[in-house]
Design a protein that fits this description.
Blueprint lengths: L1 H72 L2 E4 L3 E4 H11 L4 H5 L4 H19 L8 E6 L2 E7 L15 H13 L4 E8 L13 H20 L6 E5 L12 H7 L1 E8 L1 H22 L1
Parallel strand pairs: 5-6
Antiparallel strand pairs: 1-2, 3-4, 4-7, 5-7
Helix pairs in contact: 2-4, 5-6
Length: 288
């Protein structure tokens, strides 16, 4: 009996020691898990705080964008996805278009078409007020948005010369008034000759003469009448675009001419409007 009692006591003690070790291990593991949970909780709270801050900033940004969009919608419009045109300009354009031929207006399918018509109409009005009187030496042809002014050579040059005569000033002054009336214009000056050949110390042939005459006109428009040089194009056509047969003195005089082609540059017009509206927008931001 005594042996049995000793064995049972030993078994109980061994069993008790194993359970205590497991308990201590579990306690340690439990402490580590609690520590990790605490770290995770702190990290989560930090992330939540950062997220809330970002959300507030995004909300404030969206609110400002929405406010600016509403403000801009009241005065700006988008043309072809990239160009901004003020509604004040649109209103002026509509007033102008009231005076445009209804048939031409019906063909305008986009805002750009309408603006093109408005610029062309204003250009015609300037031509009509410029005292450029048509006669056999001076012809004005307005085709849609393109204005073509044909000037006989005797109004600008002496025979066979590319140097402008004194009587050219009156014509070029009126021409400059038309060009300077609208910033968004491109102006091509074309020199034309008759079919008779020419060869002098300073002029090689009709190509040379036609280009030199166009260049003389361009230089005078720039230097004396303050036409912006970036709007000007000088071109020579020689004798290869006659408007009459070169079979008589009268017909040859018709072919000797300087043609001014005035082209409304709609892209430039929109760019100018965008520049103006950018200035408005920048001023709006600076006042906030």
């Amino acid at each position: 009996m005594r042996k049995i009692s000793i064995v049972l006591t030993t078994a109980i003690l061994v069993s008790s020691c194993v359970s205590k070790k497991k308990y201590i291990a579990l306690e340690k593991e439990n402490g580590e898990i609690k520590s990790e949970l605490l770290k995770t909780k702190i990290a989560k709270e930090d992330l939540v705080a950062k997220f809330d801050n970002i959300q507030k900033r995004v909300k404030a940004y969206n609110s400002k964008i929405s406010s600016l969009k509403q403000e801009n919608n009241a005065k700006l419009d988008i043309v072809e996805g990239f160009t901004v045109v003020s509604n004040d300009t649109r209103a002026k354009m509509r007033e102008t278009l009231k005076n445009v031929d209804a048939e031409k207006l019906s063909k305008a399918k986009t805002l750009k078409d309408s603006m093109n018509l408005a610029v062309a109409h204003n250009l015609k009005q300037v031509i009509n007020k410029s005292n450029i009187n048509e006669d056999e030496d001076f012809a004005v042809d307005i085709n849609e948005t393109v204005v073509m002014i044909s000037i006989a050579d005797n109004m600008l040059f002496n025979t066979g010369s590319y140097r402008l005569s004194s009587k050219a000033d009156n014509v070029l002054r009126k021409l400059a008034d038309v060009i300077n009336s609208e910033p968004s214009l491109d102006v091509m000056v074309e020199g034309h000759t008759d079919a008779r050949t020419i060869n002098t110390e300073f002029i090689a042939d009709n190509w040379d003469l036609s280009v030199l005459r166009a260049t003389s006109v361009v230089r005078k428009l720039q230097s004396k009448y303050s036409v912006a040089p970036e709007k000007l194009i000088a071109a020579g056509r020689s004798s290869y675009q006659p408007i009459a047969e070169n079979d008589s003195r009268t017909n040859r005089s018709k072919n000797r001419r300087t043609r001014i082609i005035i082209l409304p540059n709609i892209n430039k017009f929109f760019a100018l409007m965008a520049k103006n509206d950018d200035a408005i927008a920048e001023n709006t931001f600076s006042q906030e």
